[in-house]
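Dear U.,

For the methods section draft, I wanted the exact inputs and outputs in one place so we can describe them consistently. I've listed the two proteins in the order they'll appear in the manuscript figures. Please don't edit the token lines directly; just add comments below if something needs changing.

First protein:
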Amino acid sequence: MGGKSAPSNNQMVAFEMQQAQDAADKENLRQARLNQGKAAIDQLFSNQNFPDSFYQNYQNAELNYTQRQLQQQYDQAKAGMTYDLARAGTLRSTAAGYAQGLLEQQNAVNEAGLQAKADSDTAALRQSIASQQQQAYNQLYATEDPTVAANTAASSVANAQLQQPNLNPLGDMFKPVVIGMTSAIPGVYGAATYNNLNTGQNPASPFGTGAMTTSQT
């Protein structure tokens, strides 16, 4: 009977080997494109473009802005407190020292809060840039086009390098410490302690003993 003869075993083996080689070559080319794209992305997001100084400058910009405002508020609060103490005739009293201590405590807490926020915001910037790098990887693996992925990454890097902290005016950071002898001192010390002031007892003592000076010398 006529017709084509079935392929020999050698022909089948050769065909399968060629298919395997073609698939391997295709995968090698794919991996080469991915490696090329990943290398470009890594270079764009490297320490060359985002050194430690980049993040430090970001943090310093926020701290310089907020700490300057905090210092201004502290100076105003201290001036107001000094005026009120002088008006009440207690500028050189133990009450004045206690009030100053409360103001300094508020200032220390505020400074620590501003530092913590700057640290948190800087960490968020690092995370944002790392997320953008991961997005560039995802695009590369989805498209397998290193040129498109690199161009997108370059745009993300350019925008990230322009990032500045969100600088908003601070609210009132200090609570009034002294408003007047009859109203502020009870607020600073508490009613029981204020009663001790009137009886000559020293609220700074754990035993409430010892005379407390409440007028200038």
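Second protein (the one for the lower panel):
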Amino acid sequence: MKTLFDLIQDGKRSMDGRQFHPYFDSATYINESLFDRFKKSKDQVRYLKLIWAFGNTWSIDPFELVKICPDFCPVFGTPLDYGRGKNRLFDPNIVNSEGFYQPTIDHKVARINEGSNDIGNIVIVSRKANQFKSDMDSREVLDAFYKGMKATYYTS
């Protein structure tokens, strides 16, 4: 089993060796205008965030969303792979641990608890972090979860 340190290092190595798909396809670049802008960009790695943000399904302004996109998951510290389609390096649907690299949009206050899609209520975290957090939206619930997990799985 890989440690978190191993996952972080593996992710960094993969990101450093990234090669971009050279042709337009909608699953990778969403539309031809974004693809053309991507090709001309001096920082294509950064531009992937904008393409990813344009693909969000929460009706959040992609230009606002990209401003809060971190390079690393703020929970686990793993690098986030903003590549879509043929630019995606990791597939969490095939390898479970690869969810540590997939960026997801999460709501600080869950929508079910009347949280909004306002950018101030949005965070970008890895799929794994999002899954662990689920609908926990209070410190009390999070603390109880942590305490219970630690007691159940990591007893001395």
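Candidate sentences for the figure legend, describing the second protein: Residues 4-153 form one domain. The beta strands are 103-107, 122-126.

Thanks,
Y.
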